[in-house]
Design brief:
Blueprint lengths: L2 E9 L4 H11 L11 E11 L3 H14 L3 E10 L6 E8 L1 H11 L17 E6 L3 H10 L4 E6 L1 E7 L5 E8 L6 H7 L2 H6 L22
Antiparallel strand pairs: 1-2, 1-7, 3-4, 3-6, 4-5, 7-8
Helix pairs in contact: 3-5
C-alpha cells in the first residue's frame, strides 16, 4: 500500500483561520494555499498506509481523554535566526496542547516519534520567505488577537501536490479530567520546560526553535 504523510493539528476556527491564511498568502508565502491555519500536535510524519486504522483508533482514544479548553492567540514571535518562521503566539491553551501532543506521540502508540526541538505551540504566518516579508508579517500582526474554545483536533494527510487535506476530525470527550491540566502544567510551566527559554525575551520577538516544520 505504500506510505502516507500525516499530521495532527488543532484547526484555527473561522473567521480567524481564513483571515490568517490570507495574510500568509499576502506576505508571499508559497505554502499558504496548501496549509490550513493550525496549531500542530504531530508534525509531518510518514507512516505505512496499512497502519491508518490503528492510528485512527489511537487518535480517537486520545481525543476521548481530552476535554474542551480555551485557546487565545496574541501578538507575534519568530524562530529566526534558527528557523525562518514568523508565528502568532498561543498565550492560552499551551498546556493542553502539550498534554495532547505527548499522548499522540506516546512511545507505546502507532505515532511514536521524537521531536527535533522541544514542543512549542504556535500558528505559523510566514515561512521561508524573504527577510523583508518576514519582518512585515511580524510587524503587521503584532497586535493580532483571537480567542475561542477548542473542541477537538483533526488528522490531515499531505497529497502528492503538497496540499494538506482533512482526513478525520476527533472531538474531545465531555467529562472534565483533572489530569489534563495538572499533568500538563500551566501555560507558563510549559514554556519553562524548554531550557532554551531562559535567555530569550517573552511574547513578541521570541526566537525559539520549532518542533514542527510549518
Amino acid at each position: 500500500m505504500g506510505t502516507v504523510t500525516l499530521g495532527v493539528s488543532i484547526a484555527i476556527p473561522e473567521p480567524y483561520g481564513s483571515f490568517l491564511q490570507k495574510r500568509r498568502e499576502g506576505f508571499g508565502d508559497p505554502h499558504a494555499h496548501g496549509i490550513p491555519t493550525h496549531v500542530t500536535l504531530l508534525p509531518p510524519t510518514e507512516v505505512d498506509a496499512s497502519s491508518l486504522p490503528v492510528i485512527e483508533e489511537h487518535l480517537a482514544e486520545v481525543a476521548a481523554l481530552g476535554r474542551p479548553f480555551p485557546m487565545r492567540l496574541s501578538g507575534t514571535g519568530t524562530f529566526r535566526p534558527l528557523s525562518p518562521v514568523v508565528f502568532v503566539n498561543v498565550v492560552e491553551g499551551s498546556a493542553a496542547c502539550s498534554w495532547l501532543q505527548k499522548r499522540i506521540r506516546d512511545a507505546a502508540g502507532p505515532l511514536a516519534r521524537e521531536l527535533q526541538f522541544p514542543y512549542h505551540p504556535h500558528v505559523t504566518v510566514a515561512h521561508g520567505i524573504p527577510e523583508e516579508a518576514m519582518d512585515r508579517a511580524f510587524e503587521e500582526l503584532a497586535d493580532y488577537e483571537a480567542a475561542w474554545t477548542s473542541a477537538g483536533f483533526a488528522l490531515y494527510e499531505q497529497g502528492a501536490d503538497g496540499v494538506w487535506r482533512l482526513d478525520r476530525e476527533y472531538p474531545f470527550g465531555t467529562e472534565a479530567r483533572a489530569d489534563v491540566g495538572t499533568e500538563a502544567g500551566t501555560d507558563a510551566e510549559v514554556d519553562a520546560q524548554d531550557p532554551r527559554q531562559a535567555a530569550l525575551p517573552r511574547q513578541t520577538g521570541v526566537s525559539r526553535p520549532p518542533a514542527t516544520s510549518r
